[in-house]
Specification:
- With 71 residues, the chain is mainly β.
- It has one domain: Beta Barrel (OB fold (Dihydrolipoamide Acetyltransferase, E2P)), CATH 2.40.50.
- Helices cover 0% and strands 54% of the residues.
- The protein contains no helices and 8 strands.
- The protein has a 4-stranded antiparallel sheet, with no helix packed on it.
- Strand 4 and strand 5 form a beta hairpin.
């Protein structure tokens, strides 16, 4: 079963810490979203392997946009 990690708010991708194929654990920081002049860590909600990273550094994202997928 795939888990989609969604943007909680609009902002800009500041850092990406994982790539496809990486194993992640629940609660692990995956990327950092800059919004309202604050850096917001985005963490994994499930353990698994990163299937797809759909954003890069400096990308603008919308609320509920898919950032990455964990399988």
């Amino acid at each position: 079963m795939n888990t989609e990690i969604l943007a909680p708010m609009p902002g800009t991708i500041f850092q990406v810490h994982v790539k496809p194929g990486d194993d992640v654990i629940e609660g692990q920081e995956l990327l950092v979203l800059e919004a309202m002049k604050m850096e917001n860590p985005i963490v994994s909600t499930a353990a698994g392997k990163v299937k797809d990273v759909q954003v890069s550094v400096d990308d603008k994202v919308a609320t509920k946009q898919v950032l990455l997928i964990i399988e």
